[in-house]
């Protein structure tokens, strides 16, 4: 029995989906200790938008460490932090005419969500936060309370409250205006729904099954929030940092969230880093009212600042994302026509949803056995979720799409030939 099985908690999960011992990684590839190669269509669940060990980011980090640059600083001022904030202001905020204060909430996505929820409640004096069906916002108690998934919620062990879960765009099918439903409830003093402090939303529900909100739905949500004096929080932890093409996933829709949560690919190197952005008038924190030991991850500041210069001071990455997104969409739509399944996605987060929830996990397992990492999402894992690095080259992209095509064919043909094939048999195949 290896040390993982012997010693690591049963809570481990990705190592079960991708059972290899990885040693090295570069760009869109990983290798195990024996040199077997894996093509990465998973990107650290959205944390490696620019691939593994990008040489320019690695050089910046190595030279910072070699020069004895500060590693840990809580929220003391360091050169690395100033350089990151200056780059963020100059490259991200100013060109978009976005005036936001920047908070370091702790190093992970859930830290950013917790700080956003706290701030919204503090600013409005209201406790209720409205979240959406199939949302995923993190694993700590506040963010779990705005997460939909039953299994994850049950892990809390205490009641998760002060939240109301409203239907996301399309939840009741096409033609049902879910914003109108929420509006009816909020405008009716007898509906039992209290005035909310905030709405928290993902523009694309990544863990929840690649559910894409339309621009008009998001704009209506923004108006609804304004009308009811509630704040709009956009959780851009997974689909921000270019996943949908532009830096923020909402910017093409012209909405202006009050609070924005960012993490995952922000450090650009797989290092923990999160930011919470909010409009200046909301900055009513008292010094130290929200803190944490690891808010000064200077190594992440160095790689994040370098990545902003490299990828966001011009639009070539965004243009490349649109081109690659079109290639992915084209191939997945062909697969959907040929094999069944429903295409979903936006930018370079795309997938296929299958009616039988055992199909996508079987395809993921088949792809792994052919040297490729691709995960599933959705409440039952029913959606095959493609998340290649944004910087993947076209030949690797095509190769990955070919493998997926072959694996869908393999899994579905096996089922046709032997209707009683179990999921376990396919996973073992
Ligand atoms: N929000 C969203 C939209 C996420 O996808 C995730 C992570 N999958 C989180 C928050 C939580 O981030 P972390 O795992 O870093 O706490």
Question: Helix and strand layout, with pairings?
Answer:
Elements: H1 3-7, H2 14-17, E1 22-26, E2 29-32, E3 37-40, H3 43-46, H4 55-66, H5 79-93, E4 101-103, H6 109-124, E5 129-132, H7 141-145, H8 150-154, E6 163-166, H9 178-187, E7 198-201, E8 204-205, E9 211-212, H10 215-227, E10 231-235, E11 259-262, E12 275-278, H11 298-312, H12 316-339, E13 342-346, E14 349-353, H13 359-369, E15 372-373, E16 375-377, E17 383-386, H14 394-417, H15 423-428
Parallel strand pairs: 3-15, 5-6, 5-7, 7-10, 10-11
Antiparallel strand pairs: 1-2, 2-3, 4-12, 8-9, 11-12, 13-14, 14-17, 16-17
The structure holds 4'-deoxy-4'-aminopyridoxal-5'-phosphate (PMP).
Give a verbal description of the structure.
By secondary structure, this protein is an alpha/beta fold. The protein has helices at 3-7, 14-17, 43-46, 55-66, 79-93, 109-124, 141-145, 150-154, 178-187, 215-227, 298-312, 316-339, 359-369, 394-417, 423-428; strands at residues 22-26, 29-32, 37-40, 101-103, 129-132, 163-166, 198-201, 204-205, 211-212, 231-235, 259-262, 275-278, 342-346, 349-353, 372-373, 375-377, 383-386. Residues 420-429 have low confidence and may be disordered. 4'-deoxy-4'-aminopyridoxal-5'-phosphate binds next to helix 6. 4'-deoxy-4'-aminopyridoxal-5'-phosphate binds at residues 45, 108-110, 113, 136-138, 202, 206-207, 235, 237-238, 263.
């Amino acid at each position: 029995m290896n040390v993982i099985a012997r010693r690591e908690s049963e809570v481990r999960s990705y190592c079960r989906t991708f059972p290899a011992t990885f040693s090295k990684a570069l760009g869109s590839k990983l290798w195990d200790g024996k040199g077997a190669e894996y093509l990465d269509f998973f990107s650290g669940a959205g944390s490696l938008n620019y691939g593994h060990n990008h040489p320019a980011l690695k050089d910046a980090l190595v030279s910072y460490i070699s020069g004895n640059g500060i590693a840990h600083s809580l929220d003391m001022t360091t050169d690395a932090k100033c350089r990151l904030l200056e780059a963020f202001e100059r490259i991200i905020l100013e060109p978009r005419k976005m005036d936001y204060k920047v908070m370091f909430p702790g190093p992970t996505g859930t830290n950013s969500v917790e700080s956003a929820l706290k701030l919204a409640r503090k600013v409005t004096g209201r406790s209720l936060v409205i979240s959406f069906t199939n949302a995923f916002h993190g694993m700590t108690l506040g963010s779990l309370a705005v997460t939909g998934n039953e299994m994850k919620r049950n892990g809390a062990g205490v009641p998760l409250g002060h939240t109301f879960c409203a239907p996301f765009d399309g939840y009741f099918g096409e033609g049902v205006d879910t914003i109108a439903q929420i509006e009816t409830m909020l405008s009716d003093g007898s509906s039992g729904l209290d005035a909310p402090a905030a709405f928290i939303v993902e523009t694309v529900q990544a863990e929840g099954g690649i559910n894409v909100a339309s621009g008009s739905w998001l704009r209506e949500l923004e108006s609804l929030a304004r009308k009811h004096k509630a704040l709009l929080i956009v959780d851009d932890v997974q689909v921000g940092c270019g996943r949908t093409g532009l830096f923020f996933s909402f910017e093409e829709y012209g909405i202006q969230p009050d609070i924005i949560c960012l993490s995952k690919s922000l450090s650009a190197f797989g290092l923990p880093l999160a930011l919470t952005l909010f409009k200046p008038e909301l900055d009513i924190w008292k010094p130290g009212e929200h803190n944490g030991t690891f808010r000064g991850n200077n190594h992440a500041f160095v790689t994040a600042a370098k990545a902003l210069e490299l990828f966001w001071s011009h639009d070539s990455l965004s243009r490349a994302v649109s081109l690659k997104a079109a290639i992915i969409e084209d191939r997945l739509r062909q697969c959907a026509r040929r094999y069944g399944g429903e295409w979903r996605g936006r930018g370079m987060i795309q997938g296929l949803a299958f009616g039988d929830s055992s199909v996508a996990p079987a395809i993921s397992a088949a792809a792994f056995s052919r040297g490729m990492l691709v995960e599933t999402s959705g409440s039952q894992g029913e959606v095959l979720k493609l998340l290649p690095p944004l910087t993947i080259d076209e030949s690797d992209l095509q190769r990955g799409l070919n493998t997926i095509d072959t694996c869908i064919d393999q899994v579905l043909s096996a089922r046709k030939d032997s209707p009683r094939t179990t999921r376990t048999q396919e996973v073992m195949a």
